[in-house]
Amino acid sequence: MRAYQIVEWGKPAQFNEIPIPRPGPGQILVKMAGAGLCHTDISILQSPAGFWPDPPFTIGHENAGRIAELGANVEGFAEGDGVLISSMYWCGHCDKCARGLHEQCRHIGLAGYGVGYDGGLAEYILIEAKHAIALGSLDPVRAAPLADAAATSYHAVKSMLPILVPGSTAVVTGVGGLGAYAVQYLATLSGTRIIALDTSQTRLNEATRLGAHEVYISDGECAEKIRDSTSGGADAVFDFVGTTPTLSTGMAALSQGGRLIVAGIGGGEIPIGWEKIAMNAGFINTRGFNLPDLNEIVSLARDDRIEMAATHFTFDDVESGLRALEDATVEGRAVVTFD
Ligand SMILES: [Zn+2]
Ligand SMILES: [Zn+2]
């Protein structure tokens, strides 16, 4: 089969002809249908040696397809079933995994499908059955981006739902990819009032369409506008940018007891301490998601309760997809399709 692989750091990825893997006990061979491309792929392709697990490996970590072959001892799945493949490679048996906190797995590292282990930019992918989520009637091509971006955003929002009751306010900073999902989850799952911040008026318009009640261009005055419009601050601020200015705005916009949830890896820093942040407030950095999160967003997508705009590229044309992603000319998520 053909696989798009990184073979050596500092060299462009390339199409290689490799054998179709065979599933061992507890494993599943999946025929790929959709593979979302992501900025992490670009960062992997441009990375120096030493940060990510060493090549060679097939890239692509937002994967969905249909089961081609089941290994021994795999229950609950049948050949032909559509599955989403978790991009997080949890162990499934440590104390955290046992509690459903797969994102905090004791054994999780940077490696996963498409990072160290062979990913989905290939005709087939070999996975552990514990990383497969049944799609039911949901088209795997549509589902692919749920394996990473949409799930990370969902995990952040879900953790705050208990405080996002009617009468509360949530701010979403950065309403491109992950933030646009967050606006939808908040609109669908909570009674909160949603305020969106972004540097792009186009993205703010889209956020309004997806359910934001108020939108502001990000600048130094946003925190004050939010405090004014909420009579004292927001209950939750989701920061999908994570630079020093966005973190400062978020912290200044919090009400007493508010939560600043940071998913953006913008490298910003802010002081935290007594009188530095609102009383009873909290700072949470969030990474990843767990098996319940993935099952829940599959349900939302299957019921058409979230929109998932995508631009498709054929497998042969994966490099155009990566270039378009880098040039920010992709509408919605970039998804590679296979026939
Ligand atoms: Zn990703
Ligand atoms: Zn674990």
Q: What is the domain tally?
A: 2
Q: Which spans have pLDDT < 50 for at least 5 consecutive residues?
A: none
CATH architecture of the largest domain: Alpha-Beta Complex
CATH level 1 name of the largest domain:
Alpha Beta
CATH homologous superfamily title of the largest domain: Medium-chain alcohol dehydrogenases, catalytic domain
Total count of helical runs of at least 4 residues: 10
**Oligomeric description of these chains:** single chain
Query: Largest sheet, if any?
Result: 7 strands, mixed
What percent of the residues sit in helical stretches (DSSP H or I)?
A: 25-40%
Share in β-strands: 25-35%
Q: Give me the strand/helix succession.
A: EEEHEEEHEEEEHHEHEHEHEHEEHEHE
Q: Kindly report how far apart the N and C termini lie.
A: 13 Å
Q: Over the alpha carbons, how many angstroms does the gyration radius reach?
A: 20 Å
Q: What's the β-strand tally?
A: 18
Bound ligands, each once: zinc ion
Structural class: alpha/beta
Overall mean pLDDT: 95
Question: Can you tell me the overall shape?
Answer: globular
